[in-house]
Amino acid sequence: MQHISAPWRSEYIKSLERHAPESSGCFLCEAALASTDSERRDRLVLYQSEQAVLLLNRYPYTSGHLLIAPRRHVARLSDLNEAELLDLSRLTNLGIELLERVLNPQGFNVGINLGRAAGAGVPGHLHQHVVPRWAGDTNFMSVVGEVRIVPHALMTMYDQLAGAMTVRNNAT
């Protein structure tokens, strides 16, 4: 039997313990509070608006997997006010635009997992996923080996998307 190491999984498992409901820390709240370039980079924050934050997923399904979350720590869509709902949508559009510039995907999965039973890793803080997709991007490793192949290093992906954000901001 062949063994393939996926060390990022142990960090993910540890993070679930750190961000359990009884824990006071929430990586999405911390991302929303990032105020310096260094903090934003450490927390993978690409953009912060008045009501929401756009960041890379530290444990991606594929390169460029983004998360969009309201700044407020709320669990349900019905907990959001209209401004938060609108910003969540605006940042989703922004994330898709950045991914199109950098990765040129052929499609996207966009969705929210509400509650632990639905797959929410952080059920207390609502967040939306944007996952870029390409024809034929599923492979046997995920199906047979329970291993995910992510072609881009996380910080390389952050630098590319942050660069696209800078170019976008300078053009407007």
Keywords for this entry:
alpha+beta; 40% helix; HIT family, subunit A; 5 strands; 15% strand; 172 residues
Description:
By secondary structure, the chain is α+β, with helices and mostly antiparallel strands. The protein has a single domain (23-166), classed as HIT-like (HIT family, subunit A). The protein contains 6 helices and 5 strands, in the order H-H-H-E-E-E-H-E-E-H-H. The chain has helices at 8-18, 27-33, 37-42, 82-102, 140-144, 154-171, and strands spanning 45-48, 52-56, 66-70, 107-112, 128-133. It has a 5-stranded antiparallel sheet, with helices on both faces. The longest helix has 21 residues, at 82-102. It starts with 7 loop residues before the first helix and ends with a helix. The model is unreliable at 19-23 (pLDDT under 50).
H and E order: HHHEEEHEEHH
Strand content: 15-25%
Major beta-sheet overview: 5 strands, antiparallel
By DSSP (H or I, 4+ residues per run), the number of helices equals 6
Q: What class would the helix/strand composition place it in?
A: alpha+beta
Q: Could you list the spans in which at least 5 consecutive residues all have pLDDT below 50? A: 19-23
Number of domains: 1
Q: How does the overall form come out from the CA principal axes?
A: globular
- The CATH homologous superfamily is called HIT-like
Name of the level-1 CATH class: Alpha Beta
- Alpha-carbon distance between the two ends: 54 Å
User: If classified by CATH, what would the architecture be?
Assistant: 2-Layer Sandwich
Radius of gyration: 16 Å
- Mean of all residue-level pLDDT scores: 84
State the helical fraction: 25-40%
| Lateral strand order in the biggest sheet | 1-2-3-5-4
CATH topology: HIT family, subunit A
DSSP summary, beta strand count: 5
